[in-house]
Amino acid sequence: MKFRTRLILTYSLLFTIVLTLIAIIFETYNLQHLEQTTRLDLDVLSKNMSQQLDEIVRPMRFITEFLLSDSKTLSAITILTRADRSEPGAQVFITKAKADVTTALATYCNTANFYRVTFFSEYGDILTSNVMSNTIPDGYAQTDSLSSRERVDAAMGKALVLSPYDDPWDPRSPRKVFSITRLVMGNNVSSYLEVQKPYADLEAIYRLDSTRTINAAALNSRGEVLFSQFDEDTTELLGRMITENPSLKAKPLDRIRGNMAAYYYSPYTDVCTIVIQGSAGMNAAIRDITRITILMALLLCGISIFLVFVLSTRVTAPIRRLIFRMDQTNLDNTEELTYEQRGLPAKFPADDEFVQLYQSYNHLIKRLNLAKHKEGQMSLLHLQSEFDALQAQVNPHFLYNVLNVISHQGLKSGNETICEICEELASMLRYSAGTSRRLVTVREELDYVRHYLYLLKTRYLNKLSYEVDAQGRVMEQEMPKIVVQQLVENAVTHGYKDTGKNMLIGIRGWIEDGFWFIEVKNNGDGFDPAKKAQLEQQMAELRNRIQEGNLNIDIGGMGLLTIYARLLILFGTKAVLEIAECPEGTMVKIGAACTK
Question: What number of CA atoms fall less than 13 Å from residue 199's CA on the CB side?
Fold first, then answer.
């Protein structure tokens, strides 16, 4: 088999395997990204729905508080609920009180913004703002018809959001409404204020387009349904989940019956908003991702095989010509040799170009080995030094350019967080890559640490809190670069065995008795006593060796020993590094004599 054929088959198989693995990784990543995006969308959707309901309920609750805070209205309600209606002349006051309450209810604000604002009591009084609808005549109100009356009475004057019901005050053409209802406290008989909104307002919030395969429901903490797009079984299941698991309000909800779900509880309305992504929508998205992945893999495989075929043809064509020229190469003789003078053994197959190339190359290596060895070593060292110098110059500049590109993409997508992260990381790189100065000021070092803490905050979010307290003359003192950041990194990385614990990092700088000090404190698990004793022994040995002038030390890394070594070399016996246990956590303090 010719070398070109073997080359095509080998690389075709290799590319097929590699592209298959890439396709699998690509699809896995996209499926995870799809799930994360869908979950985030559901979380945002449930929260937005809940907030919209809060905004509808807020003015409804406010109007009841406004009516009860108005002295004239409250006085009229007191007369209606406390007056002895059997006494002669009481009807005059009652009629006047009804007129005052009706006037307060039938304001333009109430009629324009609410379907109905109603006052009713056990005496049968019913006064409403919606005088245009066909209501039950005054004196015929029945408090027993009030939805969830027991809950309203038990709330002791607190306004409650009631489940949708048919408006009981318009029996001829009842309209479905939902309401805020509260008990008026301090009266002889039960009386209530009710603010109604059309049920269509709830539908406008919660009813989603069915083609999106996302459905929504809203239930209160007692499992009563305000709105639901689900079937009865699913709605009943949601009600049981809420009533049987009160702690669910404070926990995220991931899946219901295998479908992705999101849950948001509003303590303001005592309403739980649940949205569920149907499996049909997710399956369609998964099929699209799989189809695109397969098409991309097939396309790349075809392109790869074609390129291998073309390149292998071009590579093998000059092999025989290369063999002929290599046979003529000699340090002492550059005269061209004819093909017949090469003297290749006949046992080598004529179509195996690599065997012939190997033999010819070996002859060349034997003739040039001595000269090549020395020259090769010198060239390698020279190229290595040039490469190292070039890399040291190019890498920071390349990283800055990449960060600028990422930041620009963040601006285009409207994600300011990406821009801020890139700016903070660029500032850290600019600071750490600079080699012109051995010492920096405390101000510069703490600015660098703030960039680092910001990036940590974007990772840990609310789990991480920090405070930097340093000002005055200490900010101008000189210290080694990238020391405080390493102390913070050690505190975060090694100080917390309990990964669920909230992390608190405190940094403080001050001047005392002619020395500057910087203290890094955390609320972690503390230093292991054995490790602390071992570290203090190593620090003592390190201090003795440096004081004796022995700088041939090998400690490596960027740990506490390295930090202490840098302080000792720069500041001598004036250097300070102390480790202490706090009531909660660990404190590391560094310092040296003031120079300014």
Answer: 15
Between the alpha carbon of residue 446 and those of residues 4, 238, 355, the distances in Å are: 62, 51, 65
Pairing of strands 503-512, 464-469: parallel
Separation between Cα atoms, residue 443 and residue 476, nearest integer Å: 6
Taking the C-alpha atoms of residue 291 and residue 355, their distance in angstroms, rounded to an integer, is: 45
Quickly tell me which residue has 């006085």 as its tokens.
75
Read off the pLDDT of residues 167-226 as tens digits, 9 standing for 90 and up: 888 777 788 999 999 998 877 788 899 999 999 999 999 988 766 678 899 998 888 899
- Which of 553, 552, 560 shows the shortest CA–CA distance to 534? 560
Give alpha helix (H) positions in 182-230. Answer: 199-206
- Is the torsion defined by CA of 524, 528, 533, 538 positive or negative? negative
- Average pLDDT score over residue span 100-117: 88
Q: Look at 70 and 388; give whichever has higher pLDDT.
A: 70
Split at pLDDT 50, 70, 90, the class of 517 is very high
Mean pLDDT estimate for the chain: 78
User: What is d(CA 228, CA 273) in angstroms, rounded to the nearest whole number?
Assistant: 10
- Distance from chain centroid for Cα 377: 52
Q: Which two tokens stand for residue 320?
A: 């025989």
The answer for residues whose C-beta is within 8 angstroms of residue 336's C-beta and 6 or more apart is 328
**Cα torsion for 549, 550, 553, 559, to the nearest 10°?**
-30
If one counts every other C-beta atom within 10 angstroms of the C-beta of residue 247, the result is 6
Decide: pTM greater than 0.85. no
Which one has a higher pLDDT value, 420 or 328?
420
pLDDT digits (tens, 9 = 90+) for 395-412: 454 455 556 557 655 666
Q: Tell me the residue ranges of DSSP E strands in 235-362.
A: 255-256, 259-266, 271-277
CA dihedral 429, 434, 437, 442 (to 10 degrees): -10
Place of tokens 């088999």: 1
- What does the alpha-carbon distance between residue 27 and residue 286 come to, in Å, rounded to a whole number? 9
Q: Which amino acid is at 310?
A: V
Q: What is the DSSP letter of 435?
A: -
